[in-house]
Structure formats: structure tokens, C-alpha cells
Specification:
This protein is mainly β and 383 residues long. The protein has 3 helices and 26 strands. The chain has one domain. Strands 1, 3, 4, 5, 6, 7, 8, 9, 10, 20 and 21 form an 11-stranded mixed beta sheet that branches. The protein is globular. This is DUF4249 domain-containing protein. It comes from Hymenobacter fodinae.
Length: 383
């Protein structure tokens, strides 16, 4: 299935600040019990590097995020670049504008770019600093053949399968979104409002949770006799995960990459996933394709490629999983108690369930209100 709106600014959001800090600190290793704790200081210039996150979607909406790297402090906030003028530039031809949909996030209309042309990202910050990526052809991403899964002792292992009969794509990247159904332990028929209990109109028992992982999954077929991706592992959902309690869905996106873009993502993956022990590889220098027009020496993090995006979604129901699995709901510790008056619920820590002559039945808000774990808005794709 080809998506005309494969990019989503919330879904695509990746906080590269922490990752960038790791890439800049080549000497940081964690040797538990061998050395004293070390809190590195990041130079000001290294904590303010421009990060360009996103790629040009040749058959849909393009989403680009412009941020700045920050320090390694756990409470460091993301610095966004607002009010930039951003557009996709066709070599010797048209310009396709992106508008700021939320702070630091820029999105185009749904586009169908000509495959025979070269494209780049061109933007000017509010400070009048001008940047461009390098021109690149729009890669055609082949369709995903299937998203499959198998159960094992650890949980549900999900795979992606693909091939390119045209022999044009050798480098692949995947991303995915997870969505799952939630039902709270108890159904609430009462609501505390204006210092009294009234009948509840909104259903807070049935919700959906979502996650948008930033895991980097790559593969290439350069050393294979056939241009086929077979059972490429994407994610292992643990046996105990509450995501599997009712129904679970995963949306997988596939991107065809150029050799240069693949190398960038591979370096980023190594820097963000393998650093931490003496035996892990040293951080790799991230060489992107975005440059300051007036100052080519300025470091910029990001590689803006151009490709179409392929998608496929699957659902997994609890009934499809082994009967002996003890899938956790997350509500195992919930209990019901009684209160004597409505004032008991003023703090919001407990939520009323119902009432009779014995009193007002209640449980902790987390056990009753599924909005603590998701949203009551049913996804449009839910089956």
C-alpha cells in the first residue's frame, strides 16, 4: 500500500540531542566498579549544532524538523528553530513550500514529484542563515511484501519481507508505529464534578495506546544473489507486555535509500545503540549532506534523502497467541474499596465506580480511567 501522507510531525519526532551528545564524546565509557563517576562537559559550540531531521517524500507529505543539540543534562529541553522559510527545490525547476505545522516542524502538501528530476531541501532560518542539502534523485521504494510474526519463548517477533523486481533498490530502512487496545480494570458510572457525584457520560474504560519508536532498522542486499529481504526482524513484543492483552497493531514503513543515506543511518545507528562498554565500537563521525551556504565549515547533523514510502499494517489478537501465555494487563494490583462521601474524591487520586446503600465503590484512578494510558479516540484504522 502506498501512503500519500506517510509523514506525521508527531509520529516522526526524534530527539537527537542526547544521541548527538554521545557522538561528540569520543572518550566516554562506562566501566562499572573500575573508575569514578564522570560527568562530561559539552562545549557550548557542540551543544548548539543544527539538526535537520526528515527526508523528502516524493509521493506524499514531507515533514522536516529543525532543532538544536543540547547538553547531556536529563532535564535539557529541545531547542527548536521556529519561523524558518523551508521548501523543496527541484534542480532547475519548481519550488515546493513547507509550512510550520508546530514549533520547529515543517510540512508540505501531498506531492507527486517527477522521478527523473533531482531534489534538495532549501531553508533559511529566522536568523537569515541559509542552508541546502545536496541534490539527490527520488528513490522509488518497492512495496512491502508482507509483515509477518512468530511466537517464541520471549514473545512475538515481528518481521518485514520485501523484494525489488526492478533491481533498483539495494539499501532499505524501516520505521514503525505501535497501537494497542486498552480496557481499564473497572467501569466507572459516576463522575466527581462540582463537589458532587453525577452520572458519567463519557466512556473512560476503553482506550488505545500508541508508541512511535525511533529504533533504526536497516538492511541491504549487496551480498545476496537475489534482491530479497526475508524475515528482517523489526521488534520483539515481550510475552508479558500489556500491548498484547486485547489487540495489537503495527504500521511498518519502508524507505529505499541511496548508498550515502544508508551510510549515514548506519553510522547513526552505531553511535546510538552500541556505545556503552569497552568492547563497543568507537563513535563514528556523522557526515550528512546539509550545509550552510555561507559557511561550509559549520557542522550540521542530518541527511536529507528523497524517496517514496511504502506502508503495511497488521493486527494481532490475543486469541491468536498461545493460551498458556500470562499476558499482563497492567491492572493486576487493582482493588475496590468504599467511601462514605463525595468529598473523598476531591484529590483525584481515586475515581468512583458506582454506589449503593453500602457506600460509594471506587478504585485508584489508574485502575478506572484508561486515559492514564491512552486516548478514548478510536483510531480511524482500527478493525
Amino acid at each position: 500500500m502506498r501512503s500519500q501522507s506517510a509523514s506525521n510531525p508527531i509520529r516522526d519526532y526524534m530527539n537527537l540531542s542526547f544521541l548527538t551528545g554521545i557522538a561528540l564524546l569520543l572518550g566516554l565509557y562506562l566501566l562499572s566498579g573500575c573508575v569514578d563517576s564522570f560527568e562530561p562537559k559539552v562545549a557550548a559550540k557542540d551543544a548548539n549544532i543544527l539538526v535537520v531531521d526528515g527526508s523528502i517524500n516524493s509521493e506524499g507529505r514531507t515533514t522536516i524538523k529543525l532543532t538544536r543539540t543540547t547538553g547531556l543534562a536529563p532535564n535539557a529541553s529541545v531547542l527548536v528553530e521556529r519561523k524558518a522559510r523551508v521548501y523543496i527545490e527541484e534542480q532547475g525547476g519548481r519550488q515546493y513550500p513547507l509550512t510550520e505545522s508546530q514549533p520547529g516542524v515543517y510540512q508540505s502538501m501531498a506531492l507527486m514529484l517527477p522521478r527523473e528530476q533531482l531534489f534538495r531541501l532549501h531553508f533559511t532560518l529566522a536568523s537569515d542563515q541559509e542552508y541546502t542539502s545536496e541534490y539527490t534523485p527520488a528513490q522509488h521504494t518497492p512495496a512491502i511484501d508482507s509483515v509477518s510474526w512468530k511466537t517464541n519463548e520471549q514473545g512475538v517477533q515481528i518481521y518485514v519481507n520485501a523484494h525489488d523486481g526492478a533491481q533498483q533498490t539495494r539499501h532499505y530502512r524501516w520505521s514503525y508505529d505501535e497501537t494497542w487496545e486498552i480496557k481499564s480494570r473497572y467501569v466507572s458510572y459516576l463522575e466527581y464534578k462540582n463537589k458532587e457525584l453525577i452520572f458519567r457520560k463519557e466512556d473512560i474504560n476503553h482506550c488505545w495506546g500508541s508508541e512511535f519508536p525511533t529504533t533504526i532498522t536497516l538492511a541491504n542486499t549487496l551480498r545476496l544473489s537475489r534482491n530479497v529481504i526475508s524475515e528482517q526482524p523489526l521488534i520483539l513484543v515481550p510475552v508479558s507486555s500489556s500491548k498484547l492483552a486485547i489487540k495489537y497493531s503495527i504500521l511498518v514503513r519502508q524507505y529505499a535509500l541511496s548508498a550515502g543515506e544508508y551510510s549515514y543511518w548506519e553510522a547513526l545507528r552505531k553511535n546510538t545503540e552500541n556505545i556503552g562498554t569497552l568492547f563497543d565500537p568507537l563513535p563514528t563521525q556523522l557526515t550528512g549532506n546539509v550545509h550552510n551556504v555561507a559557511d561550509a565549515s559549520e557542522p550540521v547533523i542530518g541527511f536529507v534523502g528523497a524517496q517514496s514510502v511504502s506502508e503495511k499494517r497488521i493486527f494481532i489478537r490475543r486469541e491468536q497467541l498461545p493460551n498458556n501465555w500470562r499476558v499482563r494487563t497492567g491492572y493486576e494490583g487493582c482493588v475496590v474499596d468504599t467511601a462514605k462521601s463525595a468529598d473523598f474524591f476531591a484529590s483525584g487520586e481515586a475515581t468512583p465506580i458506582g454506589a449503593d446503600k453500602s457506600g460509594i465503590y471506587y478504585s485508584s484512578t489508574d485502575c478506572v480511567d484508561c486515559r492514564k494510558r491512552g486516548t478514548t479516540v478510536r483510531p480511524s484504522f482500527w478493525q
